[in-house]
Amino acid sequence: MSLGRAYAVGLVGLEGRIVEVEADIGQSLPAFVLLGLPDAALNEARDRVRSAARNSGLPLSRRKLTVNLMPADLHKRGSGFDLAIVMAALAAAGDLPDPGRTVFIGELGLNGRLQPVRGVLPSVMAAVAEGFTRVVVSSRNREEAELVPGCQIRGYDCLAEVARAFGADPAGLLYPKPLPATATTAGQTPLAASQAQGPAGQKDLADIAGQHEARFAVEVAAAGGHHLLLTGPPGAGKTMLAERLPGILPDLDDAQAMEVTAIHSLDGRAACNSLLRRPPFEAPHHGASMASVIGGGSGMPRPGAASRAHRGVLFLDEAPEYERRVLDALRQPLESGRLVLHRSAGTAVYPARFQLVLAANPCPCGKGGGRGRDCTCTSLQCRRYFSRLSGPLLDRVDIQLGVERVGLRELADPGAAETSRDVAARVAAARERQQNRLAPWGSASNAEVTGAVLRGKLRPPGGVLSVVDRALDNGALTARGYDRVLRLAWTVADLAGHEMPDADDVGQALSLRQQVRTP
């Protein structure tokens, strides 16, 4: 045989496409030609593959070897194609039988060791979606790959083991003793068996002294999935409140956990050996670049903090210190729940349905809260400070709350605050009410329901909305702000156990949105 074939997966954002790897052995002078728009890391596979095969006792043919990666118009990136390339080359040389419809994902070391790669979870998901049921990965990626149901996963430590499992007879191995391959059968559903995974040392709301109104605002934000702006002097507890928001959010369901784990698998910062069940928390520094917050980089853009916070919380402390273009770039995902990153090499789409929490001081010096006696900032400096928080961005933030410093009385009574466990129970009950009510419209939380539904089928009767109607008429609210107050009113009602928002719920919702006044 002079033609061999194997399969791999190419990722474009979180979307994977099956790549057919063809290998042909010609009769001309020795050469290794790699076709199909490979990047620099993939181009280097020619030398890695030759050394790995030789050191595994299966040297590649010394004749001209041409490897083609199809589709040819898809840019291929990374070292995860190494294993598929060498398997196709060995099949072309007749050193092993045709591996059939098996997907190979893995990087090869020069000694033949099979190395783990990023993005195994979305790659296996793409393979299963295309009808492939057998996937081979590095043993260190096996647990992550097994999170995808309906697929047989085999994990190996080195190329020699893979080759032997597919019918080759390697000799002179660096790793002569094969380790047993592990597999999960196609009928298993590891979703039910995976353990919940949350942040270590979960922070508790009981640590916060006082701040009853701010604690309620955080509870409302968690119950309805609302965005939140906290404005107040340093030391008032804004960061503490934001850091405790993830602890009162409900666990992710199977579909959400798979999405979140796939993003973190592609990011590669931590091993994803089980589904991430707890909502993530991202808090980039205010000096972070556009690429680190939104996503980007050379070649195909990678996910940023906004995508890593999908189904969780994106916290921007000292929000006016961020570049304005970075803040305004968040307007798209706040509305659509996804990020579309266009580059010359292609377009990557990442989910980004997060809860945005902004924290800001009242002025550049931070002393403008309360009586503001020690503040030395001019009105022009304050306007410049808050100008980075554009009107269109703030209009998308449901809850805008002023936070004052706590006094001695609150600090002296540390046992008065509720724990996160107690608050989380109310939040979970409110989320359940929302899911039951909004199921006909395909929404899971009040923050996701459309304005047309809020003003139509879910509009409260009578004069319940009179105060919001007046705010819209006199210009205190925009049309978007009007809808967001309605969403807040439904969340307040859900927490109180009401079937429909009443006038008090609507007034409380309007108060949560209209407390902050920027200079």
From TrEMBL:
GO terms for molecular function: ATP binding. Gene3D superfamilies: 3.30.230.10, P-loop containing nucleotide triphosphate hydrolases (3.40.50.300). CDD domains: AAA. It comes from the Bacteria. SMART domains: AAA. Pfam families: ChlI (PF13541), Mg_chelatase (PF01078), Mg_chelatase_C (PF13335). InterPro entries: AAA+_ATPase, CHLI-like, Mg_chelat-rel, Mg_chelat-rel_C, Mg_chelatse_chII-like_cat_dom, P-loop_NTPase, Ribosomal_Su5_D2-typ_SF, Ribsml_uS5_D2-typ_fold_subgr. Residues 224-407 form the AAA+ ATPase domain. Belongs to the Mg-chelatase subunits D/I family. ComM subfamily. This is Competence protein ComM. It comes from Arthrobacter saudimassiliensis. The lineage of its organism: Bacteria, Bacillati, Actinomycetota, Actinomycetes, Micrococcales.
